Structure formats: C-alpha cells, structure tokens
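Pasting as-is:
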Amino acid sequence: MSEIIDLPMPAAAEPDPRLFQIVPFMKYDQGGRFTEDGKMGLAIIEAQQRAGERILINVLPDRDTEWFDGTVIVPRPVLDLPAALEAPVGGEAPAFELPACTLRFDGPVSVEYEHPGGPFSVGFTIPGTYTIKGEAFPAQAFTLTLTVTA
C-alpha cells in the first residue's frame, strides 16, 4: 500500500506589478533616430533596456521634428534650402550647399542619387516638374520642386 505524503506547496510567485504598468516608450537607433514607439509594460521595457535595447520611457517625441542626441530629446534642425528651383532644358539650377544625403527625384524621369555633400546643382534634358526629396539626418527631411523649362 502506498502512503500519501503531504508536501508543502511553494507560494505562487506574485506577478511583477510593473508588467501591468503600461507606459509609452520610444526606441531609437545608434544615431538617435526614433525607430519604434508604442505602449508596453514597464517591466518588459526595463528587461529590454537591460538586454541593450535603446528605449526611452514615458516620452512620445515627434519622429519628423525631434531626435535623441544621447542625452536629451532635441529639435531636428531645418536646412535652409530653396523650396523651388528652375532650370532650362539641358541647363542647371543655381548651386547651393547640401549635406551628404540620398536624393530621390520623381517626375518625367525618376532617379535616386547619393549626394556626397557640398555644392549641389541639378538639371535635366527632359522638361517637366520634378519633386526632389531627401534627408540628411539629424536635419529634417526636405522636399524641393525643380521645374525644367523647354
């Protein structure tokens, strides 16, 4: 006959109350660009921070106009650029300084160009209106319009 042994049961572990404390967060990359935001349990966020994730708690900055400089959230600068450019077919628009960035041209011809930084001038041999978009982080993204006239 078997004997029943009554062993004491360990007390159930209470869940960490911070799991249920939902807070806003913002993740950022090595350069300070915000990459992901939302709301999550504080204990989960803290565990991700211990694992090396770059996460700010209780903030929801504007990705388009702010970035994290490693210490605080600061405004992203606005580049002083012309809003509109004009060039004759086969000619170039007046040059202006532009930081290194990827430029996307959309219009009668669509192309992407890696600008190394420095003076920038552009022109096309096909007339039309071109939208030029770029971003030189941490500066804010920009949009220019180029009109190429016949």
